[in-house]
Every structure is written in structure tokens, then in C-alpha cells.
From TrEMBL:
Residues 255-281 are annotated as: Disordered. The keyword Methyltransferase does not apply. One of its GO terms (biological process) is protein transport. Keywords: Bacterial flagellum biogenesis, Bacterial flagellum protein export, Cell projection, Cilium, Flagellum, Protein transport, Transport. This is Flagellar assembly protein FliH. It comes from the Bacteria. Needed for flagellar regrowth and assembly.
Amino acid sequence: MSAKSDESPSDLIRARDVGGFDVWSLPSFDPHVPEPEPEPVEELPEMEEVPLEEVQPLTLEEVESIRQEAYNEGFAVGEKEGFHSTTLKVRQEADVALTAKLRALESLMHNLFEPIAEQDTQIEKSLVGLVQHIAKQVIQRELAIDSNQIEHVMREALKLLPLGVGNVRLYINPQDFELVKALRERHEETWRIVEDAALLPGGCRVETEHSRIDATVETRISQVMAKLFDQLHEQALHPAAADLSLELPDEPLIAADNDLGDAAPDTSELNAPALDGRDAP
């Protein structure tokens, strides 16, 4: 039965029997859409064909020339960069060395001028002390010889007393007793004259129950010296600018004499009596 079925014709189409068949597509029922026109294609410019020159090999002279030019160019660039680098390095080293030298010089100048400044201060103090001592000696000598200025000193001291004050005691040096006594009698005053050998001639001290006026020579000299010391202290707080110029004055001795003259005390102020803290107004 199987053999019989194999030999009978069949509706199957074998692959080897398929010949001129094609795929059939169902036709479209959509409206017709026109196809877009193709974009124009730009024509590329024609390339001009340039015939290649035949490359000639470099000769030995040309190779040597190229090498020499490259060497010279590299040498010039290296020389320029090296010169700049060397100059910068030398300048930095010079700055460091110069800074060290300047610091050493500043230290040397400081060590040189500091003792001079201290010496000037000591000399100034010594001169002031000497001037004070000489002034006292000269004033004491002059007053020992002639103490007639006691009249002016007494008048200025008595002016400081309140009006109508009584019981006035006048302390003076024994050398001035007769002169003061004559003044009291001439002005018909009731002063009580007290001799005090501790006072220098030419000075006095006036006392009442509520007042005390010190017009002694010692006090007036101390006042003048105090003003002098105040001036020196003010100069020390505000010193003048240092003059480092090498140009010396034409007459240094005269300038020095003028400086000493400025430092001398003003003896004209010795005639002004002093009013101490217990004096009445």
C-alpha cells in the first residue's frame, strides 16, 4: 500500500519542480503620490593633474649645509637663553651680596654712632652740671661783695602778700641786716627782721601766720636750673635730624661757643621771688 501511494500522483509541489515563479504582492488602493525629484548633485571641480617631479637625492654638500644651519640656529637660541639665565643668576647673587654688605654697614654705623650719642649725652649732662656749679659760685661771690639787690627782692616778695596782713617776719643773711633795717625805718614798716646765716646774701624769706614766700638765692637758682633741664629734656624727646654731611662748618669753634651760650642760665630771673605751696593768694 505504501508503494502504491508513492507511485500515485500527489498535489504537493516539490522544490526541484519550482521554476519561474515570483512573489505576488497585493496591489495598493491608496492614491498615487508622486515621487520627489532627485536633488541636483554638485559637480566637483576637476583636479588638475600635476606631474610629479622627480625627487633628487640630497648631495653631501647640501646635507652638510642643512646641518650647519640647524647648528647655528640652535647655537644662537642657546646662547641667548644662556645669556639671559646667566644675567638673571648674577643679578640675584649680586642682590644677595649687596644686601648682606648693606646690613653689615648698617650694623657698623650703628655700633659707631651709638657710643658717640651716649658720649654726647654724658658730655651734655657734665656741661650742665659745670654751668650750674659755676653759676652758683659766681652768684654767691657777687652777692657776698654787693648784696644791694636785696631791696628789689624784698619789694617783689612783699607784693605777693595779701593787703593788710600783719606780723610779717623777714629772714635774711646777717650781712644784709643793716640795709634791711634802714629800709624798714625809711618806709616806717613793722617788719620783724630775723637773721639766718644759712641764707645767702641777697635773698630773703618772708613768713606770716598764713603765708610763706621763698625768695632765697638758692631757690631762684634752682628754678633757673630746672628750666634749663626742662629745655634739655624737650630737646632729647624731639632731637634734631642727624646731619651726616661731610661738609664741615667754616667756623666750628664759634658755633660751639654759641651752643654753650644758649645753654647758660638766664641770671636775670634770679630777681624773681618764689611762692611756695603754702603761700597765700
